[in-house]
Write a structure and sequence with these properties.
- α2 packs antiparallel against α7.
- The strands form two sheets. A two-stranded antiparallel sheet has the order 1-2. Strands 3-4 form a two-stranded antiparallel sheet.
- A hairpin with an 8-residue loop joins β3 and β4.
- The N and C termini lie close together (12 Å).
- It is built from eight helices and four strands.
- It is mainly alpha-helical and 205 residues long.
- The protein has one domain.
- Bound molecules: iron/sulfur cluster.
- The site of iron/sulfur cluster (SF4) has 8 residues, from loops.
Length: 205
């Protein structure tokens, strides 16, 4: 069995991983431009979005993320994995009870309000917070999304400044398709950051 960490350092995947790095940089520039327009800064938020149960749907992000994780000292990895195990255990308990209400638990990578793998954080962690729009695949109607509650508090009175995520989603899907072709995997990933930290084998991709 091949480990995800091995894949992360496989030269065959270097180009496709580089493509994701560029896409992330483009997203960051887009987000910064929009945030600057509103004068919105993501600081002083007690209800951190890192408490949100986000699922991530691409293998490319999973592998890219694990590359950064593999570079941390082993003792740090063990600490973080132990928090990730706790997270998954709690999430499974809540889901098995089909409990109402949103699941809120701090992401195992967040320490004192900071993301340990900030440069490798997934797409949704980069784009969350400001109002946006996108056209879902195969549809023609634009979907609009609100900013986070902090945005509503600080900047909710301001007129919408266009932030179209469609190009990011489309490029992500192209990169993912390229990766899946190389791996011979043709289904969707669905993992929280905690799952991405504790699953190791390609079979569990
Ligand atoms: S990966 Fe980083 S930015 Fe994303 S939820 Fe976890 S701590 Fe927050």
């Amino acid at each position: 069995m091949t480990s995800v960490d091995k894949l992360a350092f496989d030269p065959v995947l270097a180009e496709v991983l580089e493509g994701l790095k560029h896409l992330y940089a483009e997203m960051d520039r887009g987000y910064e431009q929009v945030a600057a327009h509103y004068g919105f800064e993501c600081t002083g938020c007690a209800d951190s979005c890192c408490l949100t149960r986000f699922y991530h749907y691409t293998f490319i992000e999973y592998i890219y993320f694990r590359k950064g994780f593999a570079e941390l000292p082993e003792s740090r990895q063990a600490e973080i994995r132990s928090r990730a195990e706790k997270y998954v255990e709690t999430l499974e308990q809540i889901e098995s009870q089909a409990a109402d209400g949103p699941f809120r638990m701090m992401c195992p990578l967040n320490e004192s309000g900071r993301c340990i793998l900030y440069a490798r954080r997934p797409m949704i962690c980069r784009l969350h917070g400001v109002p946006h729009e996108f056209v879902p695949p195969g549809r023609s109607k634009t979907v609009f999304g609100q900013g986070c509650h902090k945005f509503a508090e600080k900047c909710g009175h301001l007129p919408y400044f266009p932030f179209d995520r469609t190009r990011f989603y489309m490029r992500m899907s192209e990169i993912e398709a390229e990766l899946q072709k190389k791996l011979g995997v043709f289904h969707k990933s669905r993992k929280t950051v905690a799952h991405m930290l504790i699953c190791d084998e390609v079979n569990s991709l």
